[in-house]
């Protein structure tokens, strides 16, 4: 059974950092591009970042460019999202997703992890 487990969320002050992890089980991570989406209260899902199957290609939303870094370790079946210089508007539930390519619709969603940026 394909499953994601996200971790690393929490409460952080503005300007702080968090590192989210997405551990995959039940499937071969190498076959999928992996994305991170977030949903703020009362808003639609927003794609934050995506990494290609090999890790050689990444993309970021304009709102997080220069602050967030996505990476993957296929041997560990884990994808990471390093988030620096966090802002209150980064608050939301962060979801790990899998799709054949970053340009494809999401095929699988994780259960999400809460990130709250507040003083």
List the helices and strands and how they pair.
Elements: E1 3-7, E2 10-12, E3 18-25, E4 33-39, E5 45-51, E6 58-60, E7 68-73, E8 78-83, E9 92-99, E10 108-109, E11 113-117
Parallel strand pairs: 2-11
Antiparallel strand pairs: 1-3, 3-8, 4-5, 4-9, 5-6, 7-8, 9-10, 9-11
TL;DR?
This protein has 119 residues and is an all-beta fold.
Question: What keyword list fits this structure?
Answer:
single chain; 119 residues; mainly beta; 7-stranded mixed beta sheet; 11 strands; globular
Characterization of the model:
The chain contains no helices and eleven strands. A hairpin with a 5-residue loop joins strand 4 and strand 5. The strands form two sheets. Strands 2, 4, 5, 6, 9, 10 and 11 form a seven-stranded mixed β-sheet that branches. It has a four-stranded antiparallel β-sheet with strand order 1-3-8-7, with no helix packed on it. The radius of gyration is 13 Å and the shape is globular. With 119 residues, it is mainly β.
How far do the termini sit from each other? Answer: 40 Å
Task: Work out the strand percent.
Answer: over 45%
Order of helical and strand elements: EEEEEEEEEEE
Secondary structure: helix percent: under 10%
Largest sheet: 7 strands, mixed
What is the mean predicted local confidence, pLDDT? 95
Which structural class fits the helix and strand makeup? mainly beta
Q: Residue ranges: pLDDT <50 for 5 or more in a row?
A: none
Instruction: Choose one word for the global shape.
Output: globular
Rg on CA atoms, Å? 13 Å
Beta-strand segment tally: 11
Number of helices: 0
């Amino acid at each position: 059974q394909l499953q994601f487990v996200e971790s690393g969320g929490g409460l952080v002050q503005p300007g702080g950092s968090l590192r989210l992890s997405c551990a995959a089980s039940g499937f071969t991570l190498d076959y999928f591009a992996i994305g991170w989406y977030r949903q703020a209260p009362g808003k639609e899902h927003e794609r934050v970042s995506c990494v290609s199957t090999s890790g050689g290609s990444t993309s970021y939303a304009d709102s997080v460019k220069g602050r967030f870094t996505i990476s993957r370790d296929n041997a560990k079946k884990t994808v990471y999202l390093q988030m620096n210089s966090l802002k209150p508007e980064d608050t939301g539930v962060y979801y790990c997703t899998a799709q054949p390519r970053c340009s494809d619709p999401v095929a699988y969603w994780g259960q999400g992890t809460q990130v709250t940026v507040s003083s």
